[in-house]
């Protein structure tokens, strides 16, 4: 530090190297006098200015996991759909309990994260979900200059699940015989028709719940999908992705079910006296309840073939049934409303392998010559 006489007193100057550019820069402060006492004050002021100038280049050393999560969720709240934000916030809150609210993010390492996860009395799938979320939070912090290097995250592998890959894929959809048994065993006409509609159209349940009467074009045999219903926040939002906004052609089977549902809803409206523009709704005219249908579906599938399924299982079943009929995966993806789906490809490979084995069994006993 050195001083220079100026009109208003003495200017004290200090040099420092900008860590971002590598260039030498200056900071200064003006004092009335040049004494031992004022030099000490000036030095403290200059040091503070230099620290403030370089702080924007270095992650905050005292950044706790709780502070990082708060900033992470604050951004997600305004950039994501309420349903996605809600899911992520629940997992993030659990992560704080597992890894510690006051843990300094720059002190985290691969061994600590994996050790904490191993100690959890949770399934491998649950641990993998937590790992995915904490990785996402820390990488978000790194991109926003809130944490130091997080390359150590690549060393943490997912936990192996108890079920084999093949078993998991098989559980994601129903075989034709299982679907037939399920429909035959359903006693409530509306829920049975809803099940048929979902499995024949491939719609997500939220997309189905948001359909207006005008969206189901009986004459043109087209379902116009543009919205989805979020049951947690009880709001309609735009479709999940750009590809989700689509027109789904109603083949004859689906057209028949669509007409049946329209008739069932007409009878329900006359019985309960409500008015709504929804294609299918609850008895009070509100959106059809996901949790009510999911409970009915799980209870019936468990009773009929000993396995609980969800509405999304019907969407995967739709894909597998189309594959069995020889429909290409690109056509199926467009019908389902996504440009790329790992699950759809896995089901495609599984169904293809199963059909190939069936063909081999048919050929095995043939005598051509």
Describe the overall structure.
- The chain is mostly helical and 369 residues long.
- It has three domains: 2-55, no CATH class; 65-162, Tyrosine recombinase, N-terminal domain (DNA polymerase, domain 1), CATH 1.10.150.130; 169-360, Intergrase catalytic core (hpI Integrase, Chain A).
- It is built from 14 helices and eight strands.
- It has helices at 36-55, 65-79, 82-99, 110-118, 124-143, 165-171, 176-185, 189-201, 205-210, 252-272, 290-305, 311-324, 329-336, 342-364, and strands at residues 2-6, 9-17, 24-31, 216-217, 222-225, 227-230, 235-238, 246-249.
- The strands form three sheets. A three-stranded antiparallel beta sheet has the order 1-2-3, with helices on one face. Strands 4-5-8 form a three-stranded antiparallel beta sheet.
- A hairpin with a 4-residue loop joins strand 4 and strand 5 (222-225).
- The radius of gyration is 31 Å and the shape is elongated.
- The termini are far apart.
- The relative contact order is 0.07.
- The model has no long low-confidence stretch (mean pLDDT 88).
